[in-house]
Every structure is written in structure tokens, then in C-alpha cells.
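ENTRY TYPE: paired fold submission
RECORD: A
CONTENT: sequence, then C-alpha cells
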Amino acid sequence: MEETKKNNENLFELGKTFFENYSQKMIQGENSNVTDNLQLKKDHSIKVASLSKYIAENLDMNREDCELAEIIGLMHDIGRFSQFEKYESFDDLKTVDHAALSLDIIQNEEFFKKIQEKNKLVIISAIGNHNKFAINETNERYLKFCKILRDADKLDILETCITYMKRDGSFSMPSISLNLQNKPILNDAVKKDIEMGKLVQRKDLKTVLDFKIFLLSMVYDINYKISFHYLNQKQLIKNIYETLPKKDEIINIYRQIRLLVENVFVLK
């Protein structure tokens, strides 16, 4: 048992080394738009790894599973590097499924081939499901890791978006908001989804305002109380709301979201 644990730790370290070498190799180049966006994704992956481990530890998972959650977080967007290098876009609907691409990349690496089969299946399920509208998984163990990754991913997406938001409400890196038009127009499909208490679908996003409402709607797909605690502590919802036009429909959406977040601490 102790030897297996040590082997897993070594493999996870090899995975971290692979990520560092791969990401740095991809970031090198003369196109500053590409290198800046790839650095953004590297930073995001490192933060999602940290948040995944943080959530797993809060759920009282054992050390091996906490480290597994961390390595999943680190690898979940490895496909983003070649995606952006080729298309200069993070829009999966217009380019390629970056989760599937991530799996294609890591499954060919030596560190992954040496991981225990039971953990390989967890990694494949969690990464494969992280960018889907809904999780397609019935295995209870796999599902837990899917939820951890999705929570960690969303938390850092929210935090990153706030960091790169300009005073005029646009983003200093347009790729973050999928290069959408910066217009104060809220698409009816987006409004309908969030008013119904649903995660907004990416295919319906037409403007930066739509994108920000999509960000707010992420609360409907957050799974764990510790994730809500982080969201609340960092005031992520409030910080996004403050960049929105104060129309009645926006104010009502914000109140609805705030009520959900407050109720989590009462009911969960």
C-alpha cells in the first residue's frame, strides 16, 4: 500500500513536470497575442489545480484523491494551448472541443500510461465532462471528481474575468469574452435561461453583456458549499454585477442570484 502511494506521488510529480515543460514550450513565440493568451491559460490551469485540491481537502478526501484532483485541474485545459495556437480563439463551438483535445494529448504521455487504471478512468471522465453543458456520468466516484473540477474551473473563470475587465466593461483580452461584440444588448434566450434558474448556454451568447450574464449563471452549476463560500468570500458575483448596466432586468437577475447564494448557507 505504501509503495503504491509513493508511486502515485511520483507519477503526479511527473505530470506536473510534463505540464510545465509543455506549457512553456507552447508559450514561446513571436506572436504576443498568442503568447499572452497561452500564459493566461497556464496561470488558469495552475489556479484550477490549487482550487481542485482545496475543494477535495474540504470534502475530506484522502491524500491520494486530493492529489488526483489537483493533477486533473492542472491538465484539464492542456488542449487550450494548441487550440489557441492554431485558431487564436478559445471558442469550442467555432474551433475544436478542447477537453477532447486535452485527453488526446495526455493519453500519449508516459506519466499517464503509468497511472493506475482506476485513476485513469477518473481523469478521463473529469476532463472529458468539464466543458460540457451537463455532466454525462453515472459512476459515483467519477462524478465527484467531475463536480470538483467544474466548480474549480468556474471559480477561476469568474476571478480571471474580473481581473481582466476594463472600466468600460470590456475585457483587456477579448478572447476571454469569446471576441463577442461589446454592446449593452441582452439576448432573449440568455435572459430566459437565467430567469428560469438555469446555466446559460454558450451558443446563445451574442454580446459581452450576454457573456457576463452567462458568468452570473454559473452559480446554477456549482456543486459544493465550499465553492459557494469561496465565491462569496471573493465577492465574485458582486464584482461582475458592478460592471453591468443598472437596468431593471439586470437588477432583478442579480437579486435572484444573490438569493440563491445566501440560501446555500442556510440549506446546505
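RECORD: B
CONTENT: sequence, then C-alpha cells
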Amino acid sequence: MSAPAASSPPAPPAPPAAPVAPAALAAPAAPAPTAAEHALDFAPLAALVTRAFPDSGPLAVEPMPGGASTRRYFRVTVPGGHAVGMFVPDGAKPEEIAQGASAAARWPFLEVRDLLAARGVDVPAVHGEDTAHGWVLLEDLGDDTLAAYLARNPAEREALYVRAVTDLARAQAALGELPRGSVVATRAFDEALLGWEIHHFREWALEARGVTLSAADRATFDRLADRLAGRIAGWPRAFVHRDYQSRNLMVRPGGALCWIDFQDALLGPRIYDLVALLNDSYQTFDRAFVEARLDDYARACALDAAGRAELGREFDRVTVQRKLKDAGRFVFIDRVKKNPHFLPFVEPTIAKVRASLARLADDDDMRTLAALLDRVLP
């Protein structure tokens, strides 16, 4: 699927950072089944459970919380514990816009999961699949996303983020060459996709909230968006998870981190996932913490001093692009999906953009963009 024009957002899109995998958000109590859940055909899930766990009794499921995705999750009781049933209405289609992507013969979630597992990345086990009926039976990872775990154990933040950064560096190295025909290799952060994401900010974080650019400001914004997208698109490409942040990493007992929500993986700049992780809209880090984690990544990648300096510049440029998109996405989710949960993150996300623009003030384009934002969003 090619990226649509900026004035025509995709349907149904996935949020930039929504928790959409097994137990991605802790909840005090299970949500009541909705009418749509009552209408689901659970017979294929029951068959999967019986095949994977022959001693299981009658199917017992509990709806699980999730984000703005079309996917639904159910905790299933099995002998000795639980598994998770994932229902995906359109499993062969990418949830996020991806330039060059199309419906795949095998679900991207399953194909990317197998690829990551084969390259040594910790991902959920699959107990069974019936993709013809929209169901996959997964390992139950519990409720400890990195975000939820750190809310209870803040003293472990540095150690876990060092782990997340070094895990990412190792995974990028292991995924340097992809299998022939890999769905990941068919999708990329090219200029069209990056530009579409920047315009998603204009359309939703500005225009949808009553901020209309003057003709001159619109021409300036378009020019800056085009140049920023072109610059980032021209960098070497690596494996990109696309949403590598605190709600998409599960903490296992012992501190290992398990990746989830990887179905939209594609090729793009090496720094992209570091931006998602260290400029996470749901976390706040001081600059010293971010710089230390960039140092950790640089060491893991054996970068010299010049390489480390360039890494920091890349980090700020991609922060501008990614966080502009995120701010627009949060408003889009509210207005189109009628889910206001992400609105409190709009202004903090724009603040992250401003901070990166300030560090790039020696660049004429970034200085001009900062001035434009100051004018229209004082």
C-alpha cells in the first residue's frame, strides 16, 4: 500500500505508540465484553487451545485491554496458567501506512516474529494459528510492559534502558541481511512516507485544532517538510521496529526484554527506533540520561567520536520528524477513532520537537521551522 496524500489519512491506521500486544497495559480489572466481542466466533480459538493444550477444559476467556488497534486480545485459561488469543480482522494487511506494502500471504506479525526469533531477538512464542479465521494463540507475557514495570520499580530504569539500547544494536546487526522476499524489505521509510507523516501533523495537530497556516507559512512548511523527509530518506537503511518504546517491550522475570507490536517493521534510518525509545511520548528523561543511552548505543556499534557526534544530529532530526507525526496521530485517534486517551501526550510531544529544534539551531531549515511553530503555537 502506498502512502496516501496528506489530506487523506488511511483507514484504519494504527496509533504511533499504542499498546497493542498481549497484556500491553496493566489494568485493575478486565473490561466487560463488548457487543463486538460477543459477536466474535470463538470456536477457532477453542480448537487452537485444544490442539496446543490437550488437557484444557471448556474455553474460558477474559477480554484484555488494548489501544486503538483493530486487534483484540483475550486471556485464555490453560492447564498450569494462561495463553493469549489474538484476533486480527485483517491480519495480512499492515496496520501502519508503509510505502510499498501490500497484503501478504502470511501475516506480517507472524513473518516478522519468525524472522526476529531466528536472529536471536526475544519475541512471544506462538502456540498455534488459524489465520483463515483471524486467530493466533500466543504466549502470555503477563502485564509488565516496560512502562508498567518501571512505574513500580523506578530504580531499575537505567539498567533496563541500557538493556533496551544494547538489544536494539545487536538486533540491527543480526538483521543486516534479510531473507529473500522478506516483508520487511518490501517496506521503507522513503521520502513519500516520511513526508506524509510530517503533513499528518499539519492536518491534525494544527488544522484539526483550528490552526490554519497562512499561504506563506503553508509554503514554508511544505518546503521544510519536503527537505527534511528527503534528507532522512537518503540515509542508509536498517531494520526498524517502528514503535520501539516502553509500551511495546515486556519485562520478563530476570529483566530480559521481549519485543511486541513488530508487525509494521520496515527499512529506515538506524536512529529511528532509538528516537522512539528515548523520546517516548509516555516517558520523560533528562538530557543526560538520553545522551548516556546514545553513548551506550555508540559503544555497542563501535562508533568513533565523529560517528557518535553524527548519531546525535541524526537523533534530533528524526525526533523532529517522528514527534511531529506522533502529535498529529494523537489528535487523529481522538477525532476519527473517538479515543481521547492519547490527547494528554500532544503538548509534551510537541515540546520534544521544540527541544530538538533548539539543538539544531545552526541549521537554517530547523531554525525556520522552530520560528514557524513559535508563531502558530505560541
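NOTES ON RECORD B: Residues 305-337 form the longest helix (33 residues). The beta strands are 61-63, 72-78, 81-87, 126-130, 135-139, 237-240, 249-251, 257-259, 266-269.
STATUS: closed
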